[in-house]
Write a structure and sequence with these properties.
Blueprint lengths: L5 H12 L3 H14 L9 H8 L3 H29 L1 H19 L5 H30 L4 H30 L1 H21 L28 H4 L3 H30 L4 H29 L1 H21 L4 H30 L4 H30 L3 H20 L9 H4 L5
Helix pairs in contact: 2-6, 2-7, 2-8, 4-5, 4-6, 4-14, 5-6, 5-8, 6-7, 7-8, 7-11, 7-13, 10-11, 10-13, 10-14, 10-15, 11-12, 11-13, 12-13, 12-15, 13-14, 14-15
């Protein structure tokens, strides 16, 4: 017979026998490399100059990346239970690095779409999955914080390597820069993948401190059940419409900054500002949502996005206000990617998170199509981004309406379990 306290002692000893920090390191190395795709706009001026491509043509690369990320996330989720997160992450790193390397030999728009678009995007989908799902299993007690950290590092990648890539393009050309990035990121992603593994079945997270808030209880719902819930689609469109402003600005950032009067270096620094804003939003809002609630955090941040996005265009001629408002737009965008990830675990449980969030992430993929299309086509038609920025604010308002409707899926669970699901 077990002595009193034996179970508790076992739970406290598990973390020491199964340290959690290597997973964070592995996820960080993987995400800092993969997140550099956000710096795509650094290469746009050089490619348009060399090949004579138009803004809608080059903007389609970012759209393909986002659609591939969202769709391959689903495929990777289906595979991960069979082949493990380490293999899934390694596939992602290999596809990402190979896509960058092959893109250096681009001679046509179709080849650019196939390499930097399809291959890089597929690598993003496979690589993005593992740190989120594995981290959620190792840190069920701090889901928002850990998701925010993993996804925040993903955003920070462009802030670290974007300016370096910009300088490299000026000195060595975009082809050499693609090759250098491919080699460096291959090393990063392979080491990161090696450190990612699921916790053993016997693993139990550390018990919270006595003063800590009581942890949530989750209800695991298979994806087939989630897809039958009307409220899921309200949430899906809220995610899609709320992130459109971010995907539009990201895809057009350097050209927009240059058209606003910023020089090449100031426009390149804008990528760093945006990356920092996105990383802060993913990390801090993920942590805030652990304490303030997911839906309350999302509603607040959407209101801020509705204000900051049009102001970014209005105040574009003041470099200080440009950077401040750009930070806020990216902060709002990054917050959504972090908090929606944690919200999917809260609403539908961690067991099926890979596929449940995979379906929800398709909303972000939709925004990845809508945002760049709005930005590039409005600019091509009018020679200005004005209407694009104001339309993004209107779509954010529609997202806010949806978020006021969304409620936890209590009707799909037992009354006892539903009472313990907190948004």
């Amino acid at each position: 017979m077990a002595l009193p306290g034996t179970v508790a002692a076992h739970q406290h000893s598990n973390p020491s026998r199964h340290p959690r920090w290597p997973v964070l390191v592995g996820g960080g190395l993987l995400n800092v490399a993969l997140g550099t795709y956000y710096a795509w706009s650094v290469f746009v001026p050089a490619l348009e100059r060399d090949f004579g491509w138009t803004r809608p043509q080059t903007s389609l690369v970012a759209t393909i990346d986002m659609v591939m990320l969202a769709s391959m996330f689903m495929v990777a989720g289906l595979l991960q239970d069979r082949i493990g997160p380490r293999t899934v992450a390694a596939i992602g790193g290999l596809l990402f690095s190979a896509g960058l390397f092959l893109a250096s030999f681009t001679q046509s728009l179709g080849m650019l779409y196939a390499t930097w678009g399809v291959m890089v995007g597929a690598g993003l989908g496979f690589g993005y999955l593992a740190p989120i799902t594995v981290g959620s299993k190792w840190f069920p007690d701090q889901r928002g914080l850990v998701n925010g950290l993993a996804i925040g590092i993903f955003a920070a990648g462009s802030g670290i390597f974007g300016p370096i890539a910009g300088v490299s393009v000026e000195r060595y050309g975009w082809r050499t820069t693609f090759q250098l990035m491919a080699g460096l990121f291959f090393v990063f992603t392979m080491v990161g993948a090696y450190l990612l593994k699921n916790p053993p079945d016997s693993y139990t997270a550390p018990a919270p401190a006595a003063s800590a808030r009581k942890p949530r209880t989750y209800v695991d719902m298979p994806t087939s059940q989630v897809l039958r819930m009307p409220m899921f689609y309200v949430l899906w469109f809220a995610y899609a419409l709320g992130t459109t402003a971010g995907t539009m600005v990201i895809s057009q950032l350097v050209p927009f900054a240059r058209s606003s009067g910023l020089g090449a270096r100031e426009a390149g620094f804008a990528i760093t500002i945006g990356a920092v804003g996105s990383a802060f939003g993913r990390f801090f809002s993920g942590w805030f949502s652990d304490h303030l609630g997911r839906l309350s955090t999302l509603r607040t941040i959407i209101v801020l996005s509705m204000i900051a996005t049009p102001l970014l265009y209005i105040e574009r001629n003041s470099i200080v206000l440009f950077y401040v408002l750009l930070f806020l737009v990216y902060y709002c965008y990054g917050t959504q990617l972090s908090v929606y990830t944690a919200l999917a675990g809260d609403f539908y449980g961690p067991k099926y998170l890979a596929t449940n969030y995979g379906v929800l992430l398709l909303a972000w993929g939709f925004a990845g199509v809508l945002g760049p299309v709005i930005g590039s086509r409005v600019y091509a038609a009018t020679g200005s981004y004005q209407y694009a920025f104001f339309l993004a604010a209107v779509l954010a308002a529609a997202s806010l309406i949806n978020l006021t409707i969304v409620r936890p899926p209590e009707a799909a669970t037992t009354p006892e379990a539903s009472a313990r699901v907190r948004a």
